[in-house]
Protein backbone atom coordinates (compact mmCIF):
# COMPACT_ATOMS: atom_id res chain seq x y z
CA UNK A 1 0.00 0.00 0.00
CA UNK A 2 1.57 3.28 -1.12
CA UNK A 3 -0.61 5.63 0.93
CA UNK A 4 -1.91 4.93 4.42
CA UNK A 5 -5.60 4.82 5.19
CA UNK A 6 -6.48 8.00 7.08
CA UNK A 7 -9.69 8.09 9.08
CA UNK A 8 -11.56 11.16 10.34
CA UNK A 9 -11.77 9.72 13.84
CA UNK A 10 -9.02 9.43 16.48
CA UNK A 11 -6.86 6.39 15.71
CA UNK A 12 -4.78 5.36 18.72
CA UNK A 13 -1.91 2.93 18.10
CA UNK A 14 -0.09 1.24 20.98
CA UNK A 15 3.27 -0.51 20.73
CA UNK A 16 6.03 -1.40 23.18
CA UNK A 17 7.94 -4.32 24.61
CA UNK A 18 5.39 -4.93 27.38
CA UNK A 19 1.97 -3.65 28.36
CA UNK A 20 0.55 -3.19 24.86
CA UNK A 21 -2.62 -5.19 25.34
CA UNK A 22 -3.33 -3.88 28.83
CA UNK A 23 -2.79 -0.27 27.72
CA UNK A 24 -4.98 -0.79 24.67
CA UNK A 25 -7.75 -2.28 26.80
CA UNK A 26 -7.54 0.51 29.39
CA UNK A 27 -7.71 3.22 26.72
CA UNK A 28 -10.66 1.50 25.05
CA UNK A 29 -12.48 1.08 28.35
CA UNK A 30 -12.27 4.80 29.09
CA UNK A 31 -13.25 5.89 25.58
CA UNK A 32 -16.25 3.55 25.66
CA UNK A 33 -17.74 5.57 28.51
CA UNK A 34 -18.74 8.06 25.79
CA UNK A 35 -18.08 6.58 22.36
CA UNK A 36 -18.53 3.44 20.26
CA UNK A 37 -14.94 2.22 19.85
CA UNK A 38 -13.25 -0.33 17.60
CA UNK A 39 -10.45 -2.11 19.44
CA UNK A 40 -7.96 -4.83 18.54
CA UNK A 41 -9.52 -8.14 19.64
CA UNK A 42 -7.29 -9.75 22.26
CA UNK A 43 -3.68 -9.38 21.19
CA UNK A 44 -4.00 -10.15 17.48
CA UNK A 45 -1.57 -7.38 16.62
CA UNK A 46 0.44 -8.26 13.50
CA UNK A 47 0.19 -6.01 10.44
CA UNK A 48 -1.92 -8.55 8.54
CA UNK A 49 -4.45 -8.21 11.37
CA UNK A 50 -4.41 -4.42 11.00
CA UNK A 51 -5.27 -4.84 7.31
CA UNK A 52 -8.35 -6.81 8.36
CA UNK A 53 -9.37 -4.29 11.01
CA UNK A 54 -9.40 -1.41 8.53
CA UNK A 55 -12.31 -3.13 6.80
CA UNK A 56 -14.17 -3.53 10.08
CA UNK A 57 -14.03 0.10 11.23
CA UNK A 58 -17.26 1.78 10.15
CA UNK A 59 -18.90 5.18 10.36
CA UNK A 60 -20.57 4.29 13.65
CA UNK A 61 -17.21 4.16 15.42
CA UNK A 62 -16.04 7.34 17.13
CA UNK A 63 -12.48 6.06 17.73
CA UNK A 64 -10.19 3.14 16.97
CA UNK A 65 -7.64 1.76 19.44
CA UNK A 66 -5.19 -0.67 17.88
CA UNK A 67 -2.24 -2.67 19.08
CA UNK A 68 0.74 -2.56 16.68
CA UNK A 69 3.03 -5.52 17.28
CA UNK A 70 6.37 -6.33 15.69
CA UNK A 71 8.84 -9.17 15.45
CA UNK A 72 11.34 -7.46 13.17
CA UNK A 73 12.43 -4.14 11.62
CA UNK A 74 9.87 -2.38 9.45
CA UNK A 75 6.82 -4.05 10.95
CA UNK A 76 5.50 -0.96 12.73
CA UNK A 77 5.99 1.03 9.54
CA UNK A 78 3.83 -1.50 7.71
CA UNK A 79 1.09 -1.05 10.31
CA UNK A 80 1.20 2.72 9.82
CA UNK A 81 1.10 2.41 6.03
CA UNK A 82 -2.09 0.38 6.39
CA UNK A 83 -3.74 2.69 8.92
CA UNK A 84 -2.06 5.91 10.02
CA UNK A 85 -2.50 6.70 13.72
CA UNK A 86 -3.19 10.20 14.96
CA UNK A 87 -2.18 9.23 18.51
CA UNK A 88 0.77 6.96 19.24
CA UNK A 89 1.82 5.25 22.49
CA UNK A 90 5.18 3.54 23.06
CA UNK A 91 4.78 1.85 26.44
CA UNK A 92 8.48 1.00 26.87
CA UNK A 93 11.52 -0.44 25.11
CA UNK A 94 12.55 -3.64 26.85
CA UNK A 95 13.89 -7.00 25.78
CA UNK A 96 10.88 -8.70 24.17
CA UNK A 97 11.90 -9.95 20.69
CA UNK A 98 15.33 -8.40 21.14
CA UNK A 99 16.87 -11.54 19.65
CA UNK A 100 15.49 -10.40 16.29
CA UNK A 101 17.56 -7.23 16.62
CA UNK A 102 20.94 -8.77 17.38
CA UNK A 103 20.43 -8.18 21.10
CA UNK A 104 20.87 -4.43 20.48
CA UNK A 105 18.34 -2.33 22.36
CA UNK A 106 19.12 0.66 20.14
CA UNK A 107 18.04 -1.25 17.04
CA UNK A 108 14.89 -2.37 18.83
CA UNK A 109 14.16 1.21 19.92
CA UNK A 110 14.63 2.42 16.35
CA UNK A 111 12.06 -0.14 15.19
CA UNK A 112 9.61 0.97 17.90
CA UNK A 113 10.23 4.58 16.83
CA UNK A 114 8.64 3.80 13.48
CA UNK A 115 5.29 4.39 15.17
CA UNK A 116 6.11 8.05 15.72
CA UNK A 117 8.00 8.51 12.47
CA UNK A 118 5.11 7.20 10.36
CA UNK A 119 2.07 8.32 12.34
CA UNK A 120 0.33 11.62 11.59
CA UNK A 121 3.22 14.16 11.62
CA UNK A 122 1.18 16.65 13.64
CA UNK A 123 -0.39 14.08 15.96
CA UNK A 124 0.14 13.27 19.63
CA UNK A 125 2.69 10.79 21.00
CA UNK A 126 3.19 9.34 24.48
CA UNK A 127 6.39 7.83 25.89
CA UNK A 128 7.54 6.49 29.26
CA UNK A 129 9.73 9.02 31.08
CA UNK A 130 10.99 6.39 33.54
CA UNK A 131 12.14 3.95 30.87
CA UNK A 132 15.87 4.48 30.43
CA UNK A 133 15.65 3.22 26.84
CA UNK A 134 13.32 6.05 25.83
CA UNK A 135 16.49 8.00 25.05
CA UNK A 136 17.10 5.66 22.13
CA UNK A 137 13.82 6.55 20.40
CA UNK A 138 14.17 8.52 17.18
CA UNK A 139 11.27 10.76 16.18
CA UNK A 140 12.36 11.74 12.67
CA UNK A 141 10.29 14.59 11.23
CA UNK A 142 7.48 14.27 13.72
CA UNK A 143 6.18 17.78 14.44
CA UNK A 144 3.37 16.96 16.85
CA UNK A 145 3.23 17.00 20.64
CA UNK A 146 5.04 14.47 22.80
CA UNK A 147 3.73 13.78 26.30
CA UNK A 148 5.40 11.72 29.01
CA UNK A 149 4.15 9.45 31.78
CA UNK A 150 6.12 8.51 34.86
CA UNK A 151 6.25 7.51 38.49
CA UNK A 152 9.80 8.15 39.67
CA UNK A 153 10.57 11.09 37.38
CA UNK A 154 8.71 14.26 36.59
CA UNK A 155 6.27 13.74 33.73
CA UNK A 156 3.20 15.28 32.12
CA UNK A 157 1.11 12.49 33.65
CA UNK A 158 2.69 11.26 36.88
CA UNK A 159 1.36 8.80 39.44
CA UNK A 160 2.01 9.36 43.14
CA UNK A 161 0.94 7.73 46.40
CA UNK A 162 0.69 4.29 44.79
CA UNK A 163 -0.77 1.57 47.03
CA UNK A 164 -1.68 -2.08 46.77
CA UNK A 165 -5.28 -2.51 47.93
CA UNK A 166 -7.75 -5.37 47.82
CA UNK A 167 -8.28 -6.28 44.19
CA UNK A 168 -5.84 -3.83 42.59
CA UNK A 169 -3.95 -0.58 42.82
CA UNK A 170 -4.78 2.95 43.95
CA UNK A 171 -2.78 6.02 42.91
CA UNK A 172 -3.12 9.76 42.45
CA UNK A 173 -2.61 11.88 39.32
CA UNK A 174 -2.69 15.66 38.99
CA UNK A 175 -4.81 16.82 36.05
CA UNK A 176 -5.08 20.52 35.24
CA UNK A 177 -3.90 21.48 38.69
CA UNK A 178 -6.18 19.17 40.67
CA UNK A 179 -5.28 15.78 42.14
CA UNK A 180 -7.52 12.79 41.44
CA UNK A 181 -7.52 9.27 42.89
CA UNK A 182 -7.71 6.33 40.48
CA UNK A 183 -8.22 2.59 40.99
CA UNK A 184 -7.28 -0.19 38.58
CA UNK A 185 -8.54 -3.76 39.18
CA UNK A 186 -5.17 -5.43 38.60
CA UNK A 187 -2.01 -5.69 40.68
CA UNK A 188 1.42 -4.30 39.84
CA UNK A 189 3.17 -0.94 39.70
CA UNK A 190 3.94 -1.65 36.05
CA UNK A 191 0.21 -1.53 35.31
CA UNK A 192 0.08 1.96 36.77
CA UNK A 193 2.17 3.06 33.77
CA UNK A 194 -0.40 1.48 31.45
CA UNK A 195 -3.16 3.37 33.24
CA UNK A 196 -1.21 6.63 32.95
CA UNK A 197 -1.06 6.22 29.18
CA UNK A 198 -4.82 5.65 29.14
CA UNK A 199 -5.40 8.71 31.31
CA UNK A 200 -3.14 10.82 29.09
CA UNK A 201 -4.83 9.75 25.85
CA UNK A 202 -8.28 10.31 27.33
CA UNK A 203 -7.28 13.71 28.69
CA UNK A 204 -6.01 14.84 25.30
CA UNK A 205 -9.29 13.70 23.76
CA UNK A 206 -11.29 15.79 26.21
CA UNK A 207 -12.54 13.12 28.61
CA UNK A 208 -13.31 14.12 32.19
CA UNK A 209 -11.60 12.58 35.24
CA UNK A 210 -14.87 10.94 36.28
CA UNK A 211 -15.04 9.16 32.92
CA UNK A 212 -11.41 8.07 33.25
CA UNK A 213 -12.08 6.64 36.71
CA UNK A 214 -15.16 4.77 35.53
CA UNK A 215 -13.38 3.38 32.48
CA UNK A 216 -10.42 2.14 34.48
CA UNK A 217 -12.67 0.51 37.07
CA UNK A 218 -14.52 -1.28 34.26
CA UNK A 219 -11.32 -2.45 32.60
CA UNK A 220 -11.29 -6.23 32.22
CA UNK A 221 -7.91 -7.84 31.73
CA UNK A 222 -7.44 -10.78 29.45
CA UNK A 223 -6.70 -14.21 30.88
CA UNK A 224 -3.30 -15.45 32.08
CA UNK A 225 -2.22 -11.95 33.09
CA UNK A 226 -1.67 -11.75 36.86
CA UNK A 227 -4.89 -13.66 37.43
CA UNK A 228 -5.36 -14.66 41.07
CA UNK A 229 -6.92 -17.90 42.25
CA UNK A 230 -7.66 -18.99 45.80
CA UNK A 231 -7.17 -22.74 45.76
CA UNK A 232 -8.18 -23.56 49.33
CA UNK A 233 -6.32 -23.84 52.66
CA UNK A 234 -4.51 -20.59 52.07
CA UNK A 235 -2.95 -21.65 48.73
CA UNK A 236 -2.89 -18.87 46.16
CA UNK A 237 -1.99 -19.11 42.48
CA UNK A 238 -0.86 -16.11 40.42
CA UNK A 239 -1.28 -17.14 36.78
CA UNK A 240 0.82 -14.77 34.65
CA UNK A 241 1.65 -17.41 32.08
CA UNK A 242 0.71 -15.56 28.90
CA UNK A 243 4.21 -14.28 28.07
CA UNK A 244 7.52 -13.29 29.64
CA UNK A 245 10.55 -11.08 29.32
CA UNK A 246 12.97 -10.00 32.08
CA UNK A 247 11.17 -6.78 32.96
CA UNK A 248 7.77 -8.47 33.01
CA UNK A 249 9.00 -11.34 35.19
CA UNK A 250 10.54 -8.92 37.67
CA UNK A 251 7.26 -6.97 37.77
CA UNK A 252 5.37 -10.20 38.47
CA UNK A 253 7.82 -11.04 41.27
CA UNK A 254 7.07 -7.63 42.77
CA UNK A 255 3.38 -8.55 42.81
CA UNK A 256 4.18 -11.92 44.43
CA UNK A 257 6.18 -10.12 47.10
CA UNK A 258 3.52 -7.47 47.71
CA UNK A 259 0.34 -9.55 47.87
CA UNK A 260 1.46 -13.16 48.26
CA UNK A 261 0.94 -14.82 51.62
CA UNK A 262 2.70 -17.68 53.34
CA UNK A 263 5.58 -19.39 51.55
CA UNK A 264 6.28 -17.65 48.23
CA UNK A 265 7.45 -19.68 45.24
CA UNK A 266 8.10 -18.74 41.61
CA UNK A 267 7.60 -21.34 38.87
CA UNK A 268 9.35 -19.82 35.86
CA UNK A 269 9.72 -21.05 32.30
CA UNK A 270 12.35 -19.95 29.79
CA UNK A 271 12.13 -16.51 28.22
CA UNK A 272 12.51 -16.92 24.46
CA UNK A 273 13.74 -14.65 21.63
CA UNK A 274 16.40 -13.11 23.87
CA UNK A 275 19.34 -13.68 21.52
CA UNK A 276 22.71 -12.86 23.00
CA UNK A 277 21.00 -11.61 26.16
CA UNK A 278 19.64 -15.08 26.96
CA UNK A 279 22.14 -15.87 29.71
CA UNK A 280 22.38 -12.41 31.28
CA UNK A 281 18.61 -11.87 31.10
CA UNK A 282 17.79 -15.13 32.85
CA UNK A 283 20.51 -14.72 35.45
CA UNK A 284 19.23 -11.22 36.19
CA UNK A 285 15.76 -12.60 36.87
CA UNK A 286 17.30 -15.16 39.24
CA UNK A 287 19.16 -12.47 41.16
CA UNK A 288 16.00 -10.42 41.38
CA UNK A 289 13.99 -13.37 42.68
CA UNK A 290 16.57 -14.14 45.35
CA UNK A 291 16.59 -10.56 46.64
CA UNK A 292 12.85 -9.80 46.36
CA UNK A 293 11.08 -12.24 48.58
CA UNK A 294 11.00 -15.45 46.54
CA UNK A 295 11.69 -18.34 48.92
CA UNK A 296 11.54 -21.23 46.47
CA UNK A 297 12.41 -21.22 42.77
CA UNK A 298 11.36 -23.89 40.27
CA UNK A 299 12.40 -23.48 36.64
CA UNK A 300 11.52 -25.24 33.39
CA UNK A 301 13.22 -25.15 30.01
CA UNK A 302 16.76 -25.06 28.67
CA UNK A 303 17.43 -21.35 29.15
CA UNK A 304 15.64 -21.20 32.50
CA UNK A 305 18.48 -23.05 34.21
CA UNK A 306 20.32 -19.72 34.19
CA UNK A 307 17.61 -18.28 36.45
CA UNK A 308 18.66 -20.72 39.14
CA UNK A 309 22.32 -19.88 38.60
CA UNK A 310 21.58 -16.19 39.12
CA UNK A 311 19.56 -16.91 42.24
CA UNK A 312 22.33 -19.06 43.69
CA UNK A 313 24.90 -16.35 43.02
CA UNK A 314 22.65 -13.89 44.87
CA UNK A 315 22.47 -16.10 47.96
CA UNK A 316 19.40 -18.31 47.56
CA UNK A 317 20.13 -21.76 49.03
CA UNK A 318 20.57 -24.42 46.35
CA UNK A 319 18.19 -26.69 48.25
CA UNK A 320 15.37 -24.25 47.45
CA UNK A 321 16.00 -24.29 43.69
CA UNK A 322 14.95 -27.05 41.30
CA UNK A 323 15.30 -27.15 37.52
CA UNK A 324 13.28 -29.33 35.15
CA UNK A 325 13.71 -30.18 31.48
CA UNK A 326 10.33 -31.91 31.21
CA UNK A 327 7.08 -30.27 32.22
CA UNK A 328 5.57 -33.56 33.37
CA UNK A 329 8.42 -33.94 35.87
CA UNK A 330 7.82 -30.39 37.09
CA UNK A 331 4.16 -31.22 37.66
CA UNK A 332 4.90 -34.39 39.60
CA UNK A 333 7.29 -32.46 41.81
CA UNK A 334 4.82 -29.65 42.47
CA UNK A 335 2.05 -32.11 43.35
CA UNK A 336 4.27 -33.62 46.05
CA UNK A 337 5.66 -30.25 47.24
CA UNK A 338 2.37 -28.36 47.68
CA UNK A 339 1.40 -27.52 51.25
CA UNK A 340 -1.16 -25.18 52.84
CA UNK A 341 -0.38 -21.45 53.07
CA UNK A 342 1.67 -21.01 49.91
CA UNK A 343 1.57 -18.55 47.02
CA UNK A 344 2.86 -19.69 43.64
CA UNK A 345 3.64 -17.41 40.69
CA UNK A 346 3.62 -19.16 37.28
CA UNK A 347 5.20 -17.33 34.36
CA UNK A 348 7.14 -17.99 31.15
CA UNK A 349 7.19 -17.28 27.43
CA UNK A 350 3.98 -18.28 25.69
CA UNK A 351 5.65 -21.05 23.69
CA UNK A 352 6.77 -22.71 26.94
CA UNK A 353 3.14 -23.56 27.72
CA UNK A 354 3.29 -22.50 31.35
CA UNK A 355 -0.49 -22.18 31.28
CA UNK A 356 -0.51 -25.97 31.47
CA UNK A 357 1.35 -25.73 34.79
CA UNK A 358 -1.12 -23.14 36.08
CA UNK A 359 -4.05 -25.34 35.10
CA UNK A 360 -2.36 -28.38 36.63
CA UNK A 361 -2.03 -26.56 39.94
CA UNK A 362 -5.69 -25.60 39.87
CA UNK A 363 -6.72 -29.21 39.25
CA UNK A 364 -4.27 -30.60 41.79
CA UNK A 365 -5.55 -28.45 44.63
CA UNK A 366 -9.25 -29.05 43.97
CA UNK A 367 -9.48 -31.71 46.68
CA UNK A 368 -8.18 -29.09 49.12
CA UNK A 369 -11.06 -26.71 48.45
CA UNK A 370 -12.97 -25.79 51.59
CA UNK A 371 -16.15 -23.71 51.99
CA UNK A 372 -15.16 -20.06 51.71
CA UNK A 373 -16.25 -17.55 54.30
CA UNK A 374 -18.17 -14.54 53.10
CA UNK A 375 -15.04 -12.36 53.51
CA UNK A 376 -13.03 -14.81 51.38
CA UNK A 377 -15.41 -14.53 48.44
CA UNK A 378 -14.50 -10.90 47.95
CA UNK A 379 -10.88 -11.78 47.29
CA UNK A 380 -11.42 -14.74 44.95
CA UNK A 381 -10.04 -14.47 41.38
CA UNK A 382 -9.28 -10.78 41.14
Q: Could you write a compact summary of the structure shown?
A:
The protein is of the alpha/beta class and 382 residues long.
Record keyword descriptors for this entry.
nine-stranded mixed β-sheet, six-stranded mixed β-sheet, UDP-N-acetylmuramoyl-L-alanine:D-glutamate ligase, Protein-Tyrosine Phosphatase, Chain A, alpha/beta, 12 helices, 15 strands, globular, 382 residues, disordered C terminus
What can you see in these coordinates?
The protein is α/β, with parallel strands linked by helices. It folds into 2 domains: 11-218, 3-Layer(aba) Sandwich (UDP-N-acetylmuramoyl-L-alanine:D-glutamate ligase); 227-377, Mur ligase, C-terminal domain (Protein-Tyrosine Phosphatase, Chain A, Alpha-Beta Complex). It has 12 helices and 15 strands. It has helices at residues 20-31, 47-56, 75-82, 105-118, 189-204, 209-218, 246-259, 278-291, 305-313, 327-337, 354-364, 374-377; strands at 11-15, 37-39, 63-67, 87-90, 124-128, 145-150, 157-165, 168-175, 178-184, 227-230, 236-239, 263-269, 296-300, 321-324, 342-347. The strands form 2 sheets. It has a 9-stranded mixed beta sheet with strand order 2-3-1-4-5-6-7-8-9, with helices on both faces. A 6-stranded mixed beta sheet has the order 10-11-15-12-13-14, with helices on both faces. Helix 9 links the parallel strand 13 and strand 14 (321-324). Helix 7 (246-259) runs parallel beside helix 8.
**Overall radius of gyration:** 21 Å
CATH superfamily of the largest domain: Mur-like, catalytic domain
Number of helices: 12
Q: Work out the strand percent.
A: 15-25%
H/E element sequence: EHEHEHEHEEEEEHHEEHEHEHEHEHH
| Mean pLDDT across every amino acid position | 93
The coarse silhouette is globular
Biggest beta-sheet profile:
9 strands, mixed
Q: Please give the CATH class of the largest domain.
A: Alpha Beta
Return the CATH topology of the largest domain.
UDP-N-acetylmuramoyl-L-alanine:D-glutamate ligase
Q: Uncertain segments of ≥5 residues (pLDDT<50)?
A: 367-382
Strand order of the largest sheet: 2-3-1-4-5-6-7-8-9
Indicate how many domains the architecture comprises.
2
User: First CA to last CA: what distance?
Assistant: 44 Å
The amount of helix comes to: 25-40%
Second CATH tier, the architecture of the largest domain: 3-Layer(aba) Sandwich
Output the structural class. alpha/beta
DSSP strand count: 15
